[in-house]
Amino acid sequence: MNAPATATMLQGLPAEHRQRLMRFAREVSFPQDTRLFEEGGRADRFWIIRTGSVDLDMRVPGRRAAVIETLRPNELIGWSWLFAPHAWRLGAEATSPVRAYEFDAPTIRSMCQDDPALGASVAQWVGGVLAHRLRSARTRLLDLYAPYGSGSLL
């Protein structure tokens, strides 16, 4: 595995925790236009992008799914695996060929339960990603559907 890329993609974790997680990484690839998951589906894995890009999208009643954010190398795909009920809150589609590290969510959740320090590090890392994604979703939906976009209010 590529150590410098690994350090960057999981920079929010202490080195010891990052190394433990990476022992469970499996290399996978997805062709362009592959749906990785659908909103509401079972969140039983997650990925870190090595190469390529993935769009996160959200269903919008009566409209085409809205692209919320485009993820690129070293970014986490999926956070729903960590929080009950472990169902995807968004959808995801490869917009180019993608190579990624895949992790089995039940295995990682079990590790986190057995090691509270690891669990706290993973929760903090994924929580930071989640906070960023929520801000992105809000901004994108305002850009798409608000009368005046997401510009600042006086």
UniProtKB/TrEMBL annotation:
Pfam families: cNMP_binding. Residues 9-111 form the Cyclic nucleotide-binding domain. CDD domains: CAP_ED. SMART domains: cNMP. Gene3D superfamilies: Jelly Rolls (2.60.120.10). This is Crp/Fnr family transcriptional regulator. The lineage of its organism: Bacteria, Bacillati, Actinomycetota, Actinomycetes, Kitasatosporales.
